[in-house]
Amino acid sequence: MSAPPPERPRVTPPDPGWRRVRLTVAYDGTDFRGFADQPGVPTVGGALVDAIRRASGVEIELACAGRTDAGVHGWGQVVSFDLPAGQCEAPDLARLATSITRLCAPAVAVRDIRVAPDDFDARHSAQWRSYRYSVLASPVPDPFRVRTTWHVPVPLDLRAMTLACDPLIGEHDFSSFCRAATRADGTPAPLVRRVIDARWVALDDDVLQFRITASSFCHQMVRAVVGTLVDVGRGRRRAGEMTGILAARDRHAAGQLAPPTGLCLWEVGYP
Amino acid sequence: MSAPPPERPRVTPPDPGWRRVRLTVAYDGTDFRGFADQPGVPTVGGALVDAIRRASGVEIELACAGRTDAGVHGWGQVVSFDLPAGQCEAPDLARLATSITRLCAPAVAVRDIRVAPDDFDARHSAQWRSYRYSVLASPVPDPFRVRTTWHVPVPLDLRAMTLACDPLIGEHDFSSFCRAATRADGTPAPLVRRVIDARWVALDDDVLQFRITASSFCHQMVRAVVGTLVDVGRGRRRAGEMTGILAARDRHAAGQLAPPTGLCLWEVGYP
Questions:
Q1: Which residues in chain A are closer than 8 Å to B76, comparing Cβ atoms?
Q2: Is there a single domain that holds both residue A99 and residue A201?
Q3: What count of other Cβ atoms lies within 10 Å of the Cβ of residue B204?
Q4: Model-level pTM greater than 0.80?
Q5: Same domain, residue pair A160 and A234
Q6: Would A12 be classed as within a structural domain?
Q7: Which of B101, B142, B147 comes nearest A140 by C-beta?
Q8: Residues B231 and B215 sit within 8 Å (Cβ to Cβ)
Q9: Can you say whether the dihedral through the CA atoms of B36, B37, B41, B46 is positive or negative?
Q10: What is the ipTM metric for this complex?
Q11: What amino acid positions of A are annotated as catalytic residues?
Q12: Residues A72, A263 contacting (CB under 8 angstroms)
């Protein structure tokens, strides 16, 4: 199986006298209907566009590294947009970041702001994305982790879940773990992705965290993978089944979708 | 200075055929108006009494180790109450704990349930209480720590704050750090308390945590102490001033009250 040739979209540079700005943002996604701006509903993208307009007086178009779903969190989400060059000196940008954070408080915070090269685009320039998914494996729920973990009240076999990660690594068709998607011309969108790393880490306090890095992800991929791995962890499937599930290229072959609460877009890599 | 003789209240034992039950509960205090049951407002105690009534059919009276204020959290809060002996077998209690957690979800969870000796009382039997107060010392706020930390956006001098803890340890009149209180007969309640340990711990991710253990605490004591120590950390006061602030026995001598968000009743010690 060979992947489609890597997408090489032409990134439109900023207009003359404008600069491209890159922002790293963290957000608690609990009370948002996802990232992508939709009129009339609270979204992270909508909150950012609104805050940037109010703080800078500029109507912007936002590109983002990962359009997270409703309830999914961000720690290292990256977005890009253009501003007049006169608003892009370091102190201007520092003030802008503070204003955006204040306007979006407390659910969204700007962690970094900088001028990027003209050909930078938060989505198309990204070389890899890392997601983390946190599972609270404990008989009792934890009021302080309700918003950021999936509570699974039975013991999970970490070794089996770790074994089941291995077949994911490399380049595969992830049809078994993704919602089918179509291109603008109606043909099916390719669901081949390259997974660079996938592993479980045991944190303190009964939290098991799944960490996965890939060139890019298709829709609901991490949540479907985690749902299936947790089935392995609780003994409903064997680790050895993962290879067959991948090969089936059928969404019904894999497990349930893990809830969005546990998922966080952790980091995005650029050249 | 000598402390008043230790309180030795007579604990009323359960009625014949009843047993005393001890519960350890965790709660996110953000959406509660404190612990103490007050008609018509959401309180942690009210939620527990209500859930126990619905789950057991019994109308109970609740004793608790620490009546936390509005917005203050609990991890190891302990409460006690009486149930008919016929509802106190181990499987009955396990089911009761699960029911209470389900009825109070997601903000309150029962971490432990057990039968206690007849002379046990969550408040009067306690030998010490530990509180933890978390400060996020970072230029940027963190959406995931909004509910559980005080965000102080300037660097704090951990060494100075640590030095300033030392005078707190031992038996002192804490009038400078507490709201004045009166007894039932109108005389002022004594504000002498014995602090067993007080220290700062640097956690990862810019969180500084104040940990204090005492025989008991007077009202708003931890928050007033933290407000004063953070004044030291940001250079508004010197560590050497703490001894004089304590000796003043005047609430105006100490600093501002730290917000409730950062405070958590961590653990309670019994014989």
A1: none
A2: no
A3: 5
A4: yes
A5: yes
A6: no
A7: B101
A8: no
A9: positive
A10: 0.91
A11: 69
A12: yes
Number of neighbouring beta carbons within 10 Å of residue B94: 13
B135 φ, ψ (degrees, to nearest 5) = -115, 125
**For the segment A111-153, what is each residue's pLDDT rounded down to a tens digit?**
999 999 999 999 999 999 999 999 999 999 999 999 999 999 9
Q: Which of A102, A108, A142, A266 to mutate to test the interface with B (most CBs of B within 10 A)?
A: A142
* Same-domain pairing of A133 and A171: yes
B144 with A28: Cβ contact below 8 A? yes
The residues, ordered by sequence, that sit 6+ positions from B222 with a Cβ below 8 Å of its Cβ are B131, B133, B210, B212, B263
Q: CA B221: distance to chain centroid? A: 10
* Distance, CA of A77 to chain centre: 7
For residue B197, indicate whether it is catalytic: no
Specify the length of chain B in residues.
271
Chain segment A7-62, per-residue pLDDT in tens: 556 799 999 999 999 999 999 999 999 999 888 999 999 999 999 999 999 999 99
Specify if B2 maps to a domain.
no
Residue B86 belongs to domain spanning? 18-116
> In this structure, are strands B73-84 and B263-269 parallel, antiparallel, or unpaired?
parallel
Pairing of strands A63-64, A73-84: antiparallel
